[in-house]
Amino acid sequence: MGFFPKQYQDHLEANDANLGKLSTADKAKVCNVAWCSNQKRLQHHVDPDGFTMYYKYRNDLFGSKRRFEAINRHKFIEVEEVWSKQYGFTKIYRLKPELQVANDSFFREHTGPFDLIDEKGRALRKVKRRRAIRSVDSIGNPARSINNLSLQFAVPVNVDSLRLLVEELKLWEGHLGGETGRPRTEIDRDVVDKLADKGLDETVRWLDRCIRQSEKILAYAHTTVLLYGYIAQEYEEKPAGRLYSSGLTLQTVHKLVRRAATDGCYEYDFANCHYTILHHLAKQEGLVCSTIIEYLNNKQRIRQEIAQRIGVSIKQVKQALISLIYGAPFSAYWEGSSKDIMGDQCDLFLADQFVESLHQDVKDARNLLVGRHRSRTHKGKIINALHKSIDPDRKPREILAHILQGMEARMLEICREVMTKTVLLQHDGWTCQERQDKELMEQRILETTRIPMSIEEEFVTLYSRNDETSETLDTQGVQLHFGW
User: Fold this and answer.
1) Which residues pair with 424 in a beta bridge?
2) Per 3-state DSSP, what percentage of the chain is helix, strand, and coil (rounded to 5)?
């Protein structure tokens, strides 16, 4: 569940006497929820001012619903009993007003260095030999992912870029609130795009979340246990093999915050990861998916044409096409479903001739792969490329996700064998301090999996420039300090 400052817990306790009545472990659990409540992963699907606690997250942290309710008897976390299976959202959770005020004022009153504690109130002391990947996965089985030297528990962040980001976010917040004139910043395009996509109210909330997330990453980078400029980042393996970081980390913040934190690094990702895997796994079983091939060969043009035909953004088209693979019901507003992404334009999207053909290819490939894997069980279980198991009577879309995510995780593991100076792992990508040999990685993936996966590279630049001869970059007279 990650770490957070002990001083943050003390600050909340000073503003709510009932918090001090809890045991050390229970108090830490409540404060952990408060600290992580504005991370992207927990943002509520319907209420932008609330957050969600999926039952798995709640039970992992508190033990059970009954235990959560017992600890929460003083209503530290207010629960609005409104949820919908059709519209795909959970109950709405909010911090009680006293804790919300304390949460908002913490960084105005505390500057660090901070002591770190975990969700049980235990202090983080020794990190020298601590592994970045937990030895057991999220359901208690031994983790399959390999801990190697390229992936460290303590990773560097660009603290000066994060500080500049906070300043520019606040300038835009003041402008959108009518307090100041329009600023000229490095994030103008991000803000303008957000305004066009989400409107004024959601953009203001996004600015506020980015500010809070940046401040928290900066707090992680100024602790008593790690070198200045380094943060603690730990991963947990999920049932299909994906690695999720615990708590509020670079993996769970908004993209803009992540770009600032990794400013000056190199970012890599698998191109069209799941469509590529789906196509080649189906091909290995004798099925040719011609529409998927056409999409993989002309993705930019096809996305743009679909966007123009139905009147949505290219980003929405990209997300909706990915959602076809996972088979969320089209009649439901589940988060990540076509209905959720497209809204009123969903029917037009699904009726598009190319989308219909692509969807048919996906269904054919899914039926074939699920059927073949069900006939090749090991000890009654379906095993994916990372040797993670799933029950064969699960829904076809769940089995396909397990197969695709397992292959994705295996490919990432192959790349990690030659990866150097890793800052961040994501599901189908990673970020490193120095440039990587992506051709070697592509070759090893092909030799191991028989899938020709293309790896895309991008130099992360927000305030820095791509100058490999200099570790200290200058922009507008501001000297940037790198944690590494």
Assistant:
1) 431
2) 50, 15, 40
Token pair of 472 as six digits? 């200290």
Domain that holds residue 73: 1-125
In a domain, 226, yes or no: no
Report d(CA 24, CA 18) in Å as an integer: 13
Ranges of beta strands (E only) in 87-213 are: 92-95, 116-118, 154-156
pLDDT digits (tens, 9 = 90+) for 218-250: 999 999 999 999 999 999 999 999 999 988 899
| Residue 19 in tokens | 């918090």
7 located within any domain: yes
364 occurs within a structural domain: yes
Q: What is the DSSP string of 357-377?
A: HHHHHHHHHHHHHHHHHHTT-
Q: Which residues contact 50 (CB under 8 A, 6 or more apart)?
A: 44, 80, 92, 93, 94
Residue whose structure tokens are 């000890």 = 379
Q: How far is CA 474 from the centre of its chain?
A: 30
The pLDDT, as a whole number, for residue 330 is: 56
For the chain, the C-alpha Rg in angstroms (whole number) is: 23
Cα(248)–Cα(210) distance, integer angstroms: 12
251 close to 425: Cβ distance less than 8 angstroms: yes
pLDDT classification of 83: cutoffs 50, 70, 90 = confident
Is there a contact between 430 and 268 (Cβ–Cβ < 8 Å)?
A: yes
Of 86, 110, 125, at which residue does a domain stop? Answer: 125
Q: Tell me how many domains the chain contains.
A: 2
Give the pLDDT confidence score for residue 111 in this predicted structure. Answer: 87
Calculate the dihedral angle through the C-alpha atoms of 142, 145, 146, 152, rounding to the nearest 10 degrees.
Answer: -110
Per mean pLDDT, which range of 82-96, 226-240, 300-314, 354-368 is the poorest?
Answer: 82-96
- For residue 236, what is the enclosing H or E element? strand 235-237
Average pLDDT over residues 382-405: 95
Three-class SS state of 122: coil
| CA dist 321 → 91, 234, 238, 337, 402 (Å) | 28, 31, 24, 10, 18
Other Cβ atoms within 10 Å of 169 Cβ, number:
25
- Domain end, chosen from 125, 158, 192, is at 125
- Cα–Cα distance measured from residue 81 to residue 171, given in angstroms and rounded to the nearest whole number: 37
Whether 204 is covered by a domain: the verdict is no
Estimate to the nearest angstrom the gap between the alpha carbon of 57 and the chain centroid. 15
Q: 245-297: per-residue pLDDT in tens?
A: 988 899 999 999 999 999 999 999 999 999 999 999 999 999 999 999 999 99
Amino acid type, 235: Y
| Amino acid letter, residue 442 | E
What are 244's strand-pairing partners? 236
